# Entry
Amino acid sequence: MSERWDKVFPQSSRIAHRKVTFDNRYGITLAADLYRPKNPGTGRLPALAVSGPFGAVKEQVAGLYAQTLAERGFVTLAFDPSFTGESGGAVRNVGSPEIFTEDFSAAIDHLGLLPDVDRNRIGVMGLCGLSGMALTAATSDSRIKAVATASMYDMSRSMSRGYKDSYTRGQRQQVVDYLSRQRWVDAEKRAYALGYHEVPFDNGQMLKGDRVLPEKLPADADPVLTAFYNYYRTPRGFHPRAINSTTAWTATTPMSFFAFPMAANIEMIAPRPVMLVAGANAHSRYYSEDVYKAASNPKELVIVPDADHVDLYDNRSKIPFDKLEVFFKTNL
# Structure
């Protein structure tokens, strides 16, 4: 692990930071950044496990959220999910709904063993595509006392049904057949090809590629692609270890997301609280709205005016850190 400060945001003088590692229950070693307030006062502190977006690393969005919330009195842990960033996992760039969910619980293990943390006051913060895993972890791990998400994506729904559930039944079958054929190719080559994790169609034709984002932005790029590109592929948010900045997931990654839905038992989170934060102009807003409808009380949906999906990655004037602080301090 790199010990130098290699985040895409400046280091705060108000927090103490160090790198840590811990194992999940599959024996995969996870790498994380631990942030603490420098002047915490007396007594044990509440803590938060933070991860996401899907294909990002802890040096990007998760680190910014973790450091900012540490400035506000929490011990925070921003971690790379298994198979990504500085975390372990023999096959790189594999996405797993089950293992990524487990990674949140493993982060709770680590936080709860720290001497300055009150293990009865631990929450999780899921960002973008890791939000679904954060919610799913809370359905089966009651040590998580509160869960918040920002710019939520349900990766199982996105990969298996398309944007706004746009896949036809026939298109879903085409994707499954493509993934199944790719398994034979990977098995024969004893190597794992890269590919789109959200398989697009253009005029009914399935498209293939080996990068999440293009090296150069096309002149006719739509606003969503442009927003992602302007974060991950520019100095604003580029990081060499981030899948979204430099490469792609393994092509067969969607197989497990077809098989395993996110937060299928969401009613089990109650009576623990849920907060969902989404931009008013975000293409992903419907994920947060649908989870809000499905979740039991107590729950809160925060719609940020004049904000798109990526604004909630790093735009401090739009990220509602005050609301997040109140939510976690009230409920932890």
Remarks:
- Residues 15-154+262-331 form a domain with the Rossmann fold fold (CATH 3.40.50.1820).
- The mean pLDDT is 97.
